[in-house]
Predict the structure.
Amino acid sequence: MENLPQDPMILLSYVNTELRDNCASLDDFCHLHNVDKAALMSKLKAAGFEYNAELKKFW
C-alpha cells in the first residue's frame, strides 16, 4: 500500500473516488493498484470506516 496515500482521510477520499470513477468493485480497485484487500480494509476500519459493497464505497 506504499503507492497509496498514508493519511486515512486522504486514503478514504482517494479510494472512494477511484471506486466511483474508475473501478467496478473493491476487488477491481485492489487489482488495479496492486493492494491487499484485507490490509486496505483493515487500515480504513482502524480509522472508523466500513466498506459497503451495495453502495460501493467506504463510509
About this structure: Residues 8 and 44 are 6 Å apart (CA to CA). The chain is about 55% helix and 5% strand. The chain has one domain: 8-50.
